[in-house]
Amino acid sequence: MPVIGMVANKWLLQFLADILNGEVQRPACIETSALGAAFLAGLQVGIYQSLDEITRLWQTNAQFTPAMPTQQREHLYAGWQQAVARVLTK
Question: What is the DSSP letter of 46?
Fold first, then answer.
């Protein structure tokens, strides 16, 4: 099955890493909402003993690390703040 949605967009994931200035991990299982619900159900019925056990099951498909220069990141963030301010004043 092909990867769909935001997680399939490498450009977007790299941009998030750059703008947030932090690592972004793409999960091996892209249906994380369903997986999270299943993990919590399993925790409730005793299949998993703790959240730590569930955390150890997490697998990463790809990692994106910041590569954008600080000055460019700050410029883009300032532009975003200006756009939000214009929307809020209307």
Answer: T
